[in-house]
């Protein structure tokens, strides 16, 4: 009973913008939309070139030609490209963490805006037929109360169009947290963790897979592999941040 009350209190609190910046606590001008003060908001900078054309890994320094990073050169991905909104550092990292694990829904629009801008800038959105969020394992979703990728995918579709296909790409087993593992372990950890319920919904479709963070790409690549096996014509990955 107490747990239920606490959960509802959290949900209700999540519906309102706080009067203070969610990151630094500075007083917010209530007339201004958003959950962050201008200084913290400015730190959510969109990813700018140069970055890897395949996996969006930023490159420090000057480079004018399109390039492929060393990380990608050795890997075969099942998706065509990963397009990311910003670098996973500082305020972006904290925002995503609070949104994902502490149910800070008021940060959602800030993160969705980065995702939508990345889709506008870095993709030909008209070429996307279906949007599929990376699923959580059922028990984990209940524990966390929502799936952040699903929330973001819904915002994206509302802003740019496309058909949301949630609940068709599913996670069939629980996996250890990727953040604690090295790249080889991450691939092993998610192997065969996903499945498609109704392949017909993806057959011949150009699919965009949505997640909050792209780090090694192990999770989204495994989703892409399963989607391609289900008959998807192509898979594009779209995330808020690049780790
Ligand atoms: Zn602030
Ligand atoms: Zn790369």
Q: Ends: how far apart?
A: 39 Å
What would the average pLDDT be, to the nearest integer? 90
The H/E string reads HHHEHHEHHEEHEEHE
Task: Kindly state the percentage of residues in helix.
Answer: 25-40%
When the domains are counted, the total is 1
Proportion in β-strands:
15-25%
CATH class: Alpha Beta
Oligomer: single chain
Sheet of most strands: 5 strands, parallel
Physical arrangement of strands within the biggest beta sheet: 1-7-6-2-3
* Contiguous uncertain segments of 5+ residues: none
CATH names the topology as Rossmann fold
Q: From the alpha-carbon coordinates, what is the Rg to the nearest angstrom?
A: 18 Å
Shape: globular
Count of helical stretches? 9
Structural description of this entry:
With 243 residues, the protein is of the alpha/beta class. The protein has one domain (38-242): Rossmann fold (3-Layer(aba) Sandwich). 37% of the residues lie in helices and 15% in strands. It is built from 9 helices and 7 strands; from the N terminus they run αααβααβααββαββαβ. The chain has helices spanning 2-14, 38-42, 70-73, 90-101, 108-122, 138-144, 148-160, 183-190, 218-229, and strands spanning 81-87, 130-133, 163-164, 169-171, 194-196, 206-214, 234-242. The strands form 2 sheets. It has a 5-stranded parallel β-sheet. Helix 9 links the parallel strand 6 and strand 7. Helix 5 crosses helix 7. The chain is globular. The N and C termini lie far apart (39 Å). The model has no long low-confidence stretch (mean pLDDT 90). The site of one zinc ion has 8 residues, from helix 2.
């Amino acid at each position: 009973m107490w747990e239920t009350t606490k959960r509802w209190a959290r949900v209700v609190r999540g519906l309102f913008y706080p009067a203070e910046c969610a990151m630094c606590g500075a007083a917010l001008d209530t007339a201004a939309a958003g959950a962050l003060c201008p200084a913290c908001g400015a730190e959510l900078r969109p990813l700018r070139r140069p970055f890897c054309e395949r996996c969006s890994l930023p490159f420090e320094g000057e480079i004018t030609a399109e390039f492929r990073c060393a990380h990608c050169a050795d890997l075969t991905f099942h998706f065509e490209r990963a397009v990311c909104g910003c670098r996973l550092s500082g305020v972006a990292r904290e925002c995503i963490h609070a949104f994902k694990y502490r149910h800070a829904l008021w940060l959602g629009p800030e993160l969705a805006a980065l995702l939508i801008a990345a889709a506008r800038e870095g993709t030909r959105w008209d070429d996307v037929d279906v949007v599929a969020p990376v699923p959580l394992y059922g028990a984990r979703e209940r524990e966390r109360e929502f799936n952040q990728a699903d929330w973001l995918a819904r915002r994206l579709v509302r802003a740019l169009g496309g058909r949301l296909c949630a609940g068709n790409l599913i996670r069939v087993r629980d996996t250890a947290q990727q953040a604690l593992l090295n790249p080889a372990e991450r691939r092993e950890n998610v192997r065969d963790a996903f499945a498609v319920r109704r392949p017909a919904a993806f057959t011949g479709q150009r699919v965009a897979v949505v997640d909050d963070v792209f780090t090694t790409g192990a999770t989204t690549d495994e989703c892409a592999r399963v989607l391609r096996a289900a008959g998807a014509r192509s898979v594009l990955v779209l995330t808020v941040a690049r780790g």
